[in-house]
Amino acid sequence: MLDFLNTLDRRWVFLAMGLAVAIPILLGIGATEQPTAQTQRMFDYIEALPAGSRVLMALDYDPSSEAELTPMAYSFTRHCCLKRHKLYFLTLWPSGPPMLDKTISKVVLGEFDSSGRPMKYGEDYLNLGYFPGEFGAVNPICSNLRQSKSQDSKGISLDALPMMNGVNGGKDMQLIVNVSGGYPGAKEWVQYGSTPHNIPMGAGCTGVQATQLFPYHPDQLVGLVAAIRGAAEYEAILAKAYPQYNELRWRDGTRRMGAQQWAHRLMIGLILLGNAIHIASRRGRGRR
Amino acid sequence: MKRETLIWTMLLAFGAVFLLLRAVATERGVGRQYVVAREIAGLFDETAGKIVEVDPKTITVDDSRYHRMQRATQYVEALHGDTSAVFSLSRTIGIWLAALLTLCIFSYMYRDNVCYKLAEALIVGVSAGYAMVVAFWDVLIAKFLVRLTPNVARYAFVPDTPTGNDTEWLYLVPLILGVLVFARWLPKGKWLARWPLAFVVGTTAGLKLISFLDADFISQIRSTILPLVVFATDQGGARVFDWKQSLENIVLVAGVLTSLTYFYFSVEHTGVVGRISRLGVWVLMITFGASFALTVMSRITLLTMRLEFLFQDWLGIVGG
Fold this sequence. Notes:
The structure holds two protein chains of two kinds. Chain A is an alpha/beta fold.
């Protein structure tokens, strides 16, 4: 038995992991998370902003991190729309514009167009598109946005858009919300945007980045939503405050946490089993 | 027949039979996408780039908007059970392509194969092409042409370029530096390519140094100067010892100091310094462990999303 387990083909582990993830999806098992302090602070900050506040929504990710970040991008946007904040969408990633379009069409237009209080382009939300220059683009965006770009993503002059009246850049915003998939992302926005220009900032990030961003909270980040778990926490807080978002169809993060929990259980079991096999093998060799 | 070939053949055969059964026996089929045609009438909003719907009954011939009314057909995703839904071939092809490419990538878990290689080559090619197009429009056109020749940009590429904009001659500097990068192909002018690189290295180093000092050095030191004994005010207004916050602050300060000691090499790591340094190693190991666990979490989420796509959008076995 010990020899069999020692030489077990790793593809059986892949299969077990596939099943641990697939079965909860097929059975529709979700998992509501208890909010952590940093997620709760992010929600509280957006909630406390007066209606009509200017929020710079920087969605710096692409399809490779969509699974983790889209649920939180939707939740932040949904929350800001509910509070009637003015949203300025942009991205530092060349592959980011489709993520902006998807968020706008799904949440801003899809959910609020038929709500009786639709969000109007140029007055309530704006798509500034892609800003080239990676980390170098952050400082100009915050100090003088028009220096980097004179038109929005559709080629309309920024001067022709009512939302841009009296707005020079990020320093005129009440909050920067960054959804970060890597470089450039939340770290660069803290280093070149929020800290030097003293602009409040909150971030949502992938699990890979989370440990790099924790030190910035709470002094340099008003809130931090980390990984899919953070997204599920934010959805839970939003659903509590706005019960119309309690159904699972609005809560991608919550749904994905169900599969996540079972995968984690399997992994803990495999780690324990692996260590037990290792110890048993060593003892066996010692006896011989 | 080899064992592996047998397994592959059986898997493909099972898959094909399952897809065939679902396609024939179920109403929804496999990956079939349906849309609903909606006739819309309204006024074209140039700012939004779409037709804003207006009820034609509310506009009379005398209304100035009457002659500006436009009609169009809009196709939207059909809801389950919608009897007016029509089959969309283009959307169906898209779903099938995405599903097959996902399976091609998954096949690598069994072993490297031609399907995986094909999908991998496709993503590299598409990404490179996409990046080139984005760079052309957002850098060459938006950054240079609009600034250096606004009239040409307005007539040829970006009609909304504001009239009366002056040429910004300063943008000639990055343009010249950019062109100099290609000098590396000149047999006698290779050295010219070093100038733009020197500019990039110099400015990047300067920018990073300033931002690091402000955001990561000064601000982080400030965030670490914390009271180790914290008192809070309870509901009755009395000062009480806040043991939770005190413990949190002690752990944070001790973690920073012990980790820094580990990287302090001017003193030999023996005796008290050695023990503190050892504790620092433990703090670092816990950090790496947390980082690794969060990375695993990210990868499982990716798998979850792809399986959701396969089960929901392609096979239609979950989500109605």
